[in-house]
Design brief:
100 residues, alpha+beta, two-stranded antiparallel ribbon, 4 helices
Length: 100
């Protein structure tokens, strides 16, 4: 693995030229990863189906219908969980006196 770290650029160029590069680990040289050329036409999942709107912008409704948020999401948090979100005396020990 150390060799792969030091020669990553070379290994990527090999993959770009069509070679399949196998990374191994340990004394037994167990295969753990593979470097191959990226196919820009390959489907990468649902998000790749959306047109890029510009740097940092996402289309509205990108995940619409992909998951549901039940009404319990808007219920108040239990006191013990709410306390975890609020500051406590131990915050000063971790972050200094300006933490409050």
């Amino acid at each position: 693995m150390h060799e792969a770290k030091t020669q990553l650029s070379k290994l990527v160029k090999q993959a770009q030229s069509g070679e399949e590069v196998i990374l191994t680990s340990g004394q037994k040289r167990t295969p753990v990863a593979r470097i191959v050329a990226f196919d820009p036409d390959a489907r990468l999942g649902e998000i790749s189906e959306f047109e890029v709107q510009g740097k940092g912008k996402r289309p509205l409704g990108l995940y619409k219908g992909m998951f549901d948020i039940g009404p319990e999401f808007f219920d108040p948090l239990p006191e013990e969980e709410l306390a975890l979100w609020e500051s406590s005396p131990s915050d000063e020990a971790l972050f200094g006196p300006s933490a409050r």
